[in-house]
Amino acid sequence: MRGKSAAELLQKIGDRELMLSHSAFDGLPPGRHVEHLREMLVDLHILPDRGDPRLARFEAWLEDRLDTLADRSDVRAALEQFARWHHLRRIHENRIRNMDNATRTAKQEITEAGKFLIWLSEHHHVTVDELTQAHVDEYFSTGTTTRMAARNFLQWRAKTGIGKRYHLKYREARQTPLASSHERLALIRTVLESEAVVLNNRIAALMFLLYALPVRRIAEMRTEQVEVTPTGISLHLGDHPAPVPEPLLPLFHEYLTSRANQRTTNNQSPWLFPGTRAGHHITEQTLLNTLRQVFGINILAMRNAALHDLSKELDAATLADLLGYSSQVMNIHAARSGVPMGSYPAIHSPGK
Known about the structure:
Blueprint: H1 4-14, H2 22-26, H3 32-43, H4 53-67, H5 73-92, H6 99-124, H7 133-141, H8 151-160, H9 181-193, H10 199-211, H11 215-219, E1 226-229, E2 232-235, E3 242-243, H12 249-256, H13 284-293, H14 299-313, H15 316-323, H16 327-336
Antiparallel strand pairs: 1-2, 2-3
């Protein structure tokens, strides 16, 4: 809020040139300072809470995207059906656990579907209702791999009965990446010794490397999931608390007494990793970028390595209870690590 644009925005509010309403903020040129101030005002109950801000930004993005197709009525109509009836309906029906990923995916699929429809019009002078298998084969066998994001558009049309069903090639499955135990331990040592790195990033990295938690779950952790007792610290990740290793207790204690991003509107935040936006936790994408860029972590390979190592120490049912994974997931990793399934009698017990 110290930049020139933010100062001009605050001046307009002070001079009563800008009303304190969501519609007034929607009419401003987009910018991080605009959204940051909006979320501060919502957190302070000066503006009403209109739900997840990422959904609001997505809806605004969609309107702008459709407006760019005003002179292509056929393209706009088909794309609007897909955007509103599939993506927006699915998001509004609260079947989404990760709004950030959901809106990113929706934007990509809508963008690529629009490119496909425009390609049909410009290269073959047909609409999607006149689409043939030959058009499909030509489009998805040429160009960049990002074109594959348009597949869901055609699948949705077929599923709903709006369009025909076409044969769509799938990407070939890649080999499951797996780092070695030595690489994992070396990374843990690197994180512990990286005293120049801010503490919240080190704690998040340790939670990922120790417990193989999905990055989204780390970003969304609440302080109430951390239990501090005179004898140690436990994390409530699943049905039973997972202990923090004793050598790491001083680092965890230090972080719990001085969490990041609490100096402004996120003081008294319920999130273990508060974000810079008022009332929000750190985003999954921000945390992913930190793990990759600061520590050089290969997310999938290192997560598989952690689950691989943990499955050698504990049976799959116990790991599922500790970490909040399904028994089926832990069973797969146990099989990959070569642990005999006969040692897991609890895996098929009722309620697992």
